[in-house]
Amino acid sequence: MSNLLKFPDRFLWGTSTSAHQVEGNNHNQWSKWEKENAERLSKEAKNHWQLWQREKFPGMFNPQNYISGRACDHYNRYEEDFDLAKAMNNNAHRFSIEWSRIEPEEGKFNQSEIEHYKNVVKALKMRNLEPFISLWHWTMPVWFTEKGGFAKKDNIKYFVKFCEIVVEHFKNEVNFWVVLNEPEIYAGHSYLKGMWPPQKKNFCSYFLVMRNLILAHQKVYKSIKKINPCIQVGIAKNNIYFEAHQNKFVNIFLKKIIEWWWNFYFLNQIKNHQDFIGLNHYFHNRINYGFNKNENKIVSDLGWELYPEAIYFTLKDLKKYNKPIYITENGLADATDKNREWFVKESLKNIHRAIQENIDVRGYFYWSLLDNFEWDKGFWPRFGLIEVDYGMLERKPRPSSKFYGKIVKENGIPKGDLL
Ligand code: BGC
Hints:
binds beta-D-glucopyranose, alpha/beta, 17% strand, three-stranded mixed beta sheet, eight-stranded parallel beta barrel, TIM Barrel
């Protein structure tokens, strides 16, 4: 009997990043907003976080925390960072191409930035890391958002054009493309909760943006298939494991509605326009009369419940789409690395369980390779397998990265680690 919980042959093992969160020196709608809001965010931190978080992460009170600036300088240090991914025996890597670099002005495409990403892909391939590219990870050129961004149907054409130009350049080199990263999180935070740029709180705009992102995905899918029908195109979808607290009728009823809207609506709309499903998974939500009744026995630095069984149930719910699944994100903020190894191991055991039940999972990308800029929360949440010292920009692999490397090397979870 094998002493391993084995993963399928050719399973993709990697980590994920996004351009704005690691590259540094981006000029997009988000970097503009950061500068305008850093002061406010640092003042509001005291209302958002519990005492233990405020004490452990005083950086949240510093306005500089909210400005991405040079971030991890991954734009210049990607080779060094890919060496670190390779040292974890990875065979894949997910990252995003920054639209505002490629098309800083409407219709003017910057060839040298395309060359930059060509070099990035080359650097990955030299290390036998399969590139998984996201075309949109929430950031956009300022000119696009000034025209109304995705709230205007007529603007979809700009995004489609950008995607066509990019994919055309990489059509023979890159097999996996994620069109949109978590459209529902973006639409919700930016157009309903009013937290992210452009800080709208409007149901109509929210639905409109969701609708336009669906159309954008469908159009880009068709365009890419015209460029090269062999390319695999998907989404990175944030799905949550919803449970009905105490199985009460009202909770079951609410769960069905919420789950339909959050997990399945977008996927149903694009089901004929995707070759794989990318699953970004972080949350479990036990619904009690519309509120969250999680036990929160173990939480991350952000206070998010760590409940690794959730990924098994989330995967099972995707089986109905009958598509290969890649876990395009899964991870936790854990500055001291105390729960990361446990969390990754337990999550992988649950993924393995799903695979045993014939759910076609083909890859796992931990979020994230590096500590990075966590949007409106700034730099203090630490998601990286590799720690980044933002002063010296030094990289330091955390102990959990060794553990991840061991699993990847074995293509399975050693039994000793199961105990
Ligand atoms: C996003 C990442 C983010 C991560 C952790 C995902 O929703 O795609 O950009 O850093 O979650 O919050």
